[in-house]
Amino acid sequence: MLIGPHTHDEFMEVARNFHGYPAPGLIIGGYMVELARRGLPEGILFDAISETEQCLPDAVQLLTPCTVGNGWLRIMNFGIYAVSLFDKRTGEGVRVHLDVDKMGPWEEIRTWFLKLKPKKDQDTPLLQAQIKEAGPDILTARPITVRPDRLGHKGKGLVGRCPLCGEYYPVSSGGICRSCRGESPYHAGPGFAFEGQPALRAVPVAEAVGKRALHDMTRIVPGEHKDAEFTAGQELTAGDICRLQMMGRNSIYVQDAADADDAWVHEDEAAKTFAAMLAGEGVAMLADPREGKANLTATRDGLLMVDTDRLERFNLVPDVMCATRQGYSMVLEGAKVAGTRAIPLYLSRENFIKATAMLQDGPLLQVLPMRAARIGILVTGTEVFQGLIQDKFAPIITQKAQRLNCEVVKTVFAPDDAALITQGVRDLIAAGADLVVTTAGLSVDPDDVTRKGLMDAGLTDMLYGLPMLPGTMSLVGRIASEQAPHPVQVVGVPACALFFKTTALDILLPRLLAGVEITRRDLAKLGDGGLCMECKSCTYPKCPFGK
């Protein structure tokens, strides 16, 4: 097989001139690109995706019009030795990967690819000879279709000047360039924070009379009191001297002795700015900062939502902080949900700009109202339906629903029969239920047909199973019905809820009532903290379960 217009030996020299030496990965990559090209129709315009950043992109750039610079080659570094060429318009194309299962006759290629020997111990001449002999026989090609959202090329967009380093950058990156956000590879320069504090002069307490305090000063009585005894801007009197000395203050900072220029931001100004940007709907700063800290409060009952990824990025900025209550906590109006501050008395203007840039994409905190749902309960199980045992499920679900201000509009009992379960769901929706809770019938027993009954009733977007104990076999989804103006939410509760006071239902139900979209990734994250300790006296939600 030719590699583009080249023989194997010719391509070895092309690779040497471009890459520095004829790297095995680049030579194999040449065969991969050629095999992919032969699978495309003649005359089409195509793009390329390399699933590794090593060697293979060079083969694409040597043999096709696709380069990193023109945007036709995208590197998605999965660490997989595979390349795809595909029609720019339709996304239809060919993916070729290096196939270990086909390397049997060529042991040196296998040894090189799987790194079974250190590079110095590999037989390079034998490796190159085997690559030439194998050619495309160690490759596998298959048709692919690239997702529509991956087609086309996004422009850089608007360009602006970074307020920190002065370099021009795509403003879509945020309020400051990515280098100044902390991604700079350099020890100094863009992204490198100022050190120290402005030059402030300490004034002896005895000389502070008539002057104004530069910052809040806290008095602590262990176990009894902790608050600002003196606040920023407060004029100090002769009577204050003794109290300051009793607090252990022999010298203090005062406003007219401060020498902070525009390169610095006072802690109170920083805290107020951060709080205003952090707070979304249902959250507000109801009082000025105290002791340098601004508290954020829920302005309504509901479910606290925290953008944890952006919160982490904010807290990575030097000398600032924000601490929140656990995301997805149910909170009451007036409850404190977060606190933020600058850590030093004065925050460098550079770090202030960095911190606010992390918040420019919108608030990090909001409290979502939880609707008062009309709940329909479907109790499944032939033993309950026939009256062989008394139902205990309906009272448990009813109690949990009423605790969240929901109304149970109807309870239906069905045996382990998919058709009757389907009919039971429809009866609940006809009764006005906008959230259906099914109980039991979700495990692996042959009589457990609840899922089938739900699917026959029109269940879509089903997520079944989650990493929580108790409650692993829980289910969520929705059913569209002509009898309901909106899709009816569905949550399936396994039989463990009969025994355990707290299960996965207690984690899922508030999210459903708040209208939070639940994804498979959301469920996967519940594994951290998803193990109930089965305490003799349950204190949920004041415990780690579900957090």
From TrEMBL:
Domain MoaB/Mog residue range list: 376-514
Q: Would you say which domain of life the source belongs to?
A: Bacteria
| Gene3D superfamilies recorded | 3.30.1330.130, 3.30.60.80, MoaB/Mog-like domain
Q: Show the CDD domains listed in the entry.
A: MoeA_like
Name the UniProt record assigns to this protein: FmdE family protein
